Amino acid sequence: MAGGIYTHEDIKYFLSLGADAVQMGTRFLVTEESSATREYKEAVVKARKDDIIIAGTPGSPCGLPFRVLKHSPMYRDALEKGRPPRCDKGYVLFRDDKGRFTRCLAKESNESHFCICNGLLSSAGYNPDEEKPLYTVGSNAYRVDRIMTVSELMDELKGVKKPVESVA
Ligand SMILES: Cc1cc2nc3c(=O)[nH]c(=O)nc-3n(C[C@H](O)[C@H](O)[C@H](O)COP(=O)(O)O)c2cc1C
Hints:
elongated; 7 helices; 4 strands; single chain; 168 residues; two-stranded antiparallel ribbon; alpha+beta; two-stranded antiparallel sheet
């Protein structure tokens, strides 16, 4: 089960319905160990509910709904058509009229799509000086209020109770 899973109780609930496991993105994105840039993690910590949008036009060249923080620099750039269409990656490819995988909608035009490859790579710290980041998040990202370690997060998700510190 995946999508918006946030707490220990969420995990228990979906396992009780018969799920074998859960997959979680956003919670682990905002950990010290995650390879997201500090700016990405801090943008998630600051995000409010209405900062989270499903990008349509401009949107993902894959053609699927794509949830992002609306202040993501790559998204803003796409709204203003600031980034000329170009591609130096080629990870998102559709067939051309000769049946070869050569087409990416964001490579052909910057009217309706952002460059998902360079945007996501930049948000993970790859080439951030050359390409603007795209901050993708899950629907519950506004609930994240701090960057924690994976160990702390795993304890929280496992429902480990912290010992109450004794007061002298
Ligand atoms: C940092 C991050 C990376 C993601 N990478 C992928 C991916 O490579 N492929 C994909 O289909 N979805 C990807 N997603 C989308 C998640 O699969 C989707 O957001 C998930 O269903 C929402 O769960 P969450 O609320 O736990 O983030 C990613 C999401 C995040 C936050």
